[in-house]
Design a protein that fits this description.
heterodimer; A: 396 residues; alpha/beta; 16 helices; 40% helix
Chain lengths: 396, 282
């Protein structure tokens, strides 16, 4: 496997190629959904080197392009500041490409309680829930993370970790409708708008079942925080019908952004951060809205694997605490454009960029927040059978 | 004694490699394929129950994608043969001093990633590529017809991606044909078509057999082209295996499907080689 150096070289070369800002979910545009491909690309995850010994090093695995990055110095300003401040040598890996793929990669080690090569990682809600269920996480030492109290109320008590004892959101992700303004001049606010004749065969929906089916369920008047199996299967059938009737051209992880820019798609169920960047890079050619009936919100969460030793765990907690400082959170949000989970960051953002501070994408208003729902946690059996039904509908 | 042992010693590294990276995984896969989930267990937890019905269930549930895999692979192989044969022939007999340059060009696509090349096809066939607008201008396709997310795009991607695997063995065997045999055929009053049918084609059969096998086998198991260029209605078996393994975390079904695919390919290839004759491969 690759050495650390070549790993970092590869990262910086990659950054050179992707010189424009791309959200973490957009970066694998075109390759998305190809778990194995991502596996190949990420085989240098530093899995072999010893665990963070001596309390000096900290290894953080995160999604690509999901942390403020300076193109000129090729460094992460907030992370550099953290290292300077605390003296904790932090290695940052952008190789969390896909929840399922990452789980597949580290599961065997986790099962045997062997070091997985990371001291802190950021799985999405439902995957974090799975880790908790399997006992793969550790409870935080609250004393090390006083800033945790800055968490947004909407995100403070998810069903999988009601007191946020072992997870804290890194960034929040809203799902709703995205569209090409030329083809949909009136915008898309309802499912009927989405399945309008001009979009036939040019609709792409997300491969995250909680987002796609969540939006459909909400449009059908179902509360996604209490959805039953019958209601869920009914919504999956709705999607399957739209696929077989030729309305939906793809069920994709992240390539939908590329399909929108190339004109192959005119309307999508997509993520806020991607749509923000698409809209800003294409001069108003695209727009995004939370459906009238409501959208979903999820987050990627800091999680400390149970394989991590006490020293590294304390370091990880310091890192989490640092990123829950409103000023630092604002700096990150100005780069990644996803929903900032930290209270007080909006005021700090005023100092960096007043336009961004007013952005509904990063700081949704109360009114928008009220329309966002967190998909309920699933039991093991549900997770398997619901995923299976969704995958089948998507042709797999 | 010494003489007898040497060849086995030479075989050792290769055998050790194959044992570790082929035999052991295959055994593991076989074990997984008959497991069932543990009652009350969590995601990805399975136990051995020797449930061979897994194979039957997996096949019945996914027979559509099975059919598609073999249909697309066959189409791609036939298309690749139709394109590669004239190409290999031209390089072998008509390219003169440019022979090596042309061969490098055939291999050149390998210098970039398989994924990037496939994504490039998405752009070529996309709304903003030159193909779609051109075809629309000439009225060959309607305004609402798109080329991406279709079975056409998947087969085209596969044909393109596996073309070098077809071209190189074909070239190797055509290049070996003694031009004097073609002259002799002409001297005996055979016209071009007859010469091709009676001399060139039979002599190049080893290349045809090797090329079709090298194209068909990976094409049948391919999932990248269907994932990038296809739609939910063009998914192949590889996509199902990927989804079962990574998304549903249903290892037994993924393993059973892999074995079924391997067996199906093995049977088809055996029949094909029987028909074409194994001596052609040498």
């Amino acid at each position: 496997m690759t050495t650390n150096n070549s790993h970092e070289d590869a990262q910086s070369i990659f950054k050179d190629i992707v010189s424009t800002k791309i959200s973490r979910r957009g970066v694998f545009a075109g390759i998305g959904g190809l778990g194995a491909a991502a596996l190949l690309a990420s085989c240098g995850s530093d899995g072999g080197s010893g665990s963070a010994a001596g309390g000096e090093a900290l290894r953080w695995g995160n999604w690509p392009l999901y942390l403020d990055f300076d193109e000129d110095t090729k460094k992460y300003p907030t992370l550099e500041a953290f290292i300077k401040q605390t003296g904790i040598e932090t290695k940052y890996f952008e190789d969390y490409n896909d929840n399922d793929e990452f789980f597949g990669k580290v599961q065997a080690q986790l099962k045997l309680k062997k070091d997985i090569g990371y001291d802190v990682v950021t799985p999405t809600d439902w995957m974090a829930a799975r880790w908790i269920r399997l006992g793969y996480t550790q409870k935080f030492d609250g004393g090390n993370i006083p800033n945790a109290s800055n968490i947004l109320d909407t995100l403070a008590s998810p069903s999988f970790d009601p007191k946020r004892e072992q997870t804290l959101p890194w960034q929040g992700i809203m799902s709703g409708f995205g569209w090409n303004v030329e083809k949909n001049p009136k915008g898309i606010r309802t499912l009927e708008d989405l399945f309008a004749p001009q979009n036939k065969g040019k609709i792409v929906v997300l491969s995250e079942l909680r987002d796609t089916i969540g939006v459909i369920l909400l449009a059908q008047g179902v509360d996604v925080t209490k959805v039953t199996e019958d209601q869920y299967m009914n919504a999956v059938d709705f999607m399957a019908k739209k696929i077989s009737d030729g309305w939906i051209r793809g069920v994709k992880g992240n390539e939908y952004a590329e399909d929108l820019t190339s004109g192959d798609a005119t309307a999508v169920i997509g993520w806020s951060g991607d749509m923000f960047i698409l809209a800003s890079e294409n001069e108003g050619k695209f727009d995004f809205a939370i459906p009238e009936s409501g959208g979903t919100i999820s987050s990627d969460n800091f999680v400390i694997p149970y394989t991590v030793g006490a020293d590294a765990k304390a370091n990880a907690e310091k890192l989490i605490n640092y990123y829950y400082d409103p000023a630092v959170a604002a700096e990150v949000a100005a780069y990644v454009n996803y929903v900032c989970p930290v209270k007080g960051a909006q005021a700090e953002m005023e100092k960096i960029d007043p336009d961004l501070a007013a952005s509904e994408y990063i700081f949704p208003t109360e009114k928008t927040m009220a329309k966002l729902n967190v998909f309920r946690a699933l039991t093991t059996e549900e997770e398997t059978s619901w995923t299976e039904a969704f995958q089948k509908a998507a042709g797999n | 004694m010494r003489k007898i042992r040497t060849p086995y010693l030479l075989l050792l590294p290769g055998f050790a490699f194959l044992f570790t990276f082929f035999i052991l995984p295959i055994i593991n896969l076989a074990q997984t394929s008959t497991q069932t989930s543990i009652a009350g267990g969590d995601t990805g937890q399975y136990e051995q129950t020797l449930r061979f019905a897994n194979y039957f269930d997996a096949f019945i549930e996914n027979k559509e994608q099975f059919g598609r895999s073999f249909l697309y692979a066959t189409l791609a192989t036939v298309l690749a043969l139709a394109i590669a044969y004239p190409l290999a022939y031209a390089i072998a007999f008509k390219s003169g001093k440019y022979k090596n340059v042309l061969l490098v060009l055939v291999v050149a696509p390998f210098f970039t990633s398989f994924l990037l090349r496939t994504i490039a096809w998405k752009q070529i066939l996309g709304e903003e590529g030159f193909v779609v607008p051109t075809l629309r201008t000439f009225g060959i396709i309607s305004e609402s017809t798109t080329l991406t997310s279709t079975s056409f795009a998947v087969v085209m991607g596969m044909t393109y991606n596996f073309l070098p695997f077809m071209t190189l063995p074909l070239f190797a065997s055509i290049d070996r044909i003694d031009p004097r045999t073609l002259e002799a055929s002409g001297d005996l009053y055979a016209n071009g078509i007859t010469t091709f049918r009676k001399v060139t084609l039979p002599l190049s059969m080893p290349g045809v057999v090797a090329g079709t096998l090298l194209t068909f086998i990976p094409a049948a198991g391919d999932y990248v082209n269907a994932a990038i260029l296809g739609s939910p209605n063009t998914k192949m078996l590889g996509n199902v295996i990927e989804s079962r393994y990574f998304k549903v975390v249903d290892y037994p079904t993924a393993a059973a499907l892999s074995f079924t695919l391997m067996a199906a390919i093995l049977i088809l290839v055996t029949l094909y080689i029987r028909k074409a004759g194994t001596e052609e491969l040498v």
